[in-house]
Write a structure and sequence with these properties.
Chain B: It is found in: Cytoplasm; Preautophagosomal structure membrane. Chain B: It holds the Pfam family ATG5_UblA. The complex is a heterodimer. Chain A is α+β, with helices and mostly antiparallel strands. Chain A has 6 helices and 6 strands; from the N terminus they run H-E-E-E-E-H-H-E-E-H-H-H. In chain A, a hairpin with a 2-residue loop joins strand 1 and strand 2 (about 40-50). In chain B, helix 4 (about 90-100) crosses helix 5 (about 105-115). Chain B is globular. The chains are: A alpha+beta, B alpha+beta.
Chain lengths: ~180, ~220
């Protein structure tokens, strides 16, 4: 492991393990999967969403992966109707709350794009990871100042998740601050 | 075909949908290197394989994807310092140089992405991806330094030994695989730093194909 790594793979694994522990306690469906050399956290999360004309059930699938290029976690997700039809980028975009849209449109690096999942090889939507350090650094600095335990994954996911429909229960934060 | 029956175009070779976001040379090396040129592929106007291919609604999508790869490569090589110091017009020039096949226009910007500090022997990490059709995973990508702690330059062979050791067969045995970049097999003793500077694709990545030895 590199000494100068901001957020190394081992650290990622450690925070995911803590995250999973709490997930198992509240039964909200996150799993830890390793495939040879890859680490990820997929979640199957069914949600009911209203489409323009009719009420449709949309199934969302979220995966948390580690990017060794940017040394941060990355959120991959896809969504489909119950009959298996995938949602398009346009559909996903329509589901993003107005307050996030403006921020996302400011640059191609901050936006949602379709990318190939690096382990499954299938199309997923991704929030570009290159700005993650920018918004996580003040969060981490601050919690160190007030001597508060923070789970990087929990904090990060609570910031990026809501943009794409993933809301973490508050109990995750309480669990994080209780951990040594 | 009737206009209303036509939907998104996609390409296929022997049953395999072709990923437009991969360089064409990589696709050829990986899937059809033993085929005679010109490479015959099938064009489809219906039945877009949603589970296999990314959508490509416009040229902007291709530009965005290309720039995303360039940015990721620079994150590995220079902690994104070089790409972030460039202006938007430099990014545009890189894309337009590629798009319009203007070598000098492209390299005026790309040469900056190939530089490294005088006190170093190379990039921070080498941007590479190793592809094999025999695995589930689309590619292997890891952190790998071009220089060892003792100052020796890492070679292509060193990379393979570290990242996919099964590819390099025992020395006395026959090599089961070809290690191909741009349709050629560089010597395994080639320094990785040199390969990264001179044999990278326009997106600044070394796309390496591992294919079984041809049986002719």
């Amino acid at each position: 492991m590199e000494e100068d790594e901001f957020f190394g793979e081992k650290t990622f694994q450690h925070y995911c393990a803590e995250f999973i522990k709490h997930s198992q306690q509240i039964g909200d469906g996150w799993e830890w999967r390793t495939s040879k050399e890859a680490l990820e956290l997929p979640l199957d999360d069914s949600e009911v969403t209203e489409a323009a004309a009719a009420t449709e059930v949309i199934k969302y699938e979220y995966h948390v992966l580690y990017s060794c290029s940017y040394q941060v976690p990355v959120l991959y997700f896809r969504a489909s109707f119950l009959d298996g039809r995938p949602l398009s980028l346009k559909d996903i975009w329509e589901g993003v709350h107005e307050c996030y849209k403006m921020r996302l449109q400011q640059g191609p690096w901050d936006t949602i794009t379709q990318q190939e999942h690096p382990i499954l090889g299938q199309p997923f939507f991704v929030l570009h990871p290159c700005k993650t350090n920018e918004f996580m650094t003040p969060v981490l600095k601050n919690s160190r100042k007030i001597n508060r335990n923070v789970n990087y994954i929990t904090s990060w996911l609570s910031i990026v998740g809501p943009v794409v429909g993933l809301n973490l229960p508050l109990s995750y934060a309480r669990a994080a601050s209780q951990n040594e | 075909m009737r206009q209303e029956d036509i939907s998104e175009i996609w390409f296929e070779h022997e049953g395999t949908p072709l990923k437009w976001h991969y360089p064409i040379g990589l696709l050829f090396d990986l899937l059809a290197s033993s085929s005679a040129l010109p490479w015959n592929i099938t064009v489809h106007f219906k039945g877009f394989p949603e589970k296999d291919l990314l959508h490509c609604p416009s040229k902007d999508t291709i530009e965005a994807h290309f720039m995303s790869c360039v940015k990721e490569a620079d994150a590995l090589k220079h902690k994104s310092q070089v790409i972030n110091e460039m202006q938007k017009k430099d990014h545009k020039q890189l894309w337009m140089g590629l798009h319009n096949d203007r070598f000098d226009q492209f390299w005026a910007i790309n040469r900056k992405l190939m530089e490294y500090p005088a006190e170093e022997s190379g990039f921070r990490y080498i941007p590479f991806r190793i592809y094999q059709t025999t695995t589930e995973r689309p590619f292997i990508q890891k952190l790998f330094r071009p220089v060892a702690t003792d100052g020796q330059l890492h070679t292509l062979g060193d990379l393979l030994k570290e990242v996919c050791p099964s590819v390099i067969a025992p020395e006395d045995g026959e090599r089961k695989n070809q290690v191909m970049i741009h349709g050629i097999e560089p010597m395994l003793e080639t320094p990785l730093q040199w390969l990264s500077e001179h044999l990278s694709y326009p997106d600044n990545f070394l796309h390496i194909s591992i294919i079984p030895q041809p049986t002719d």
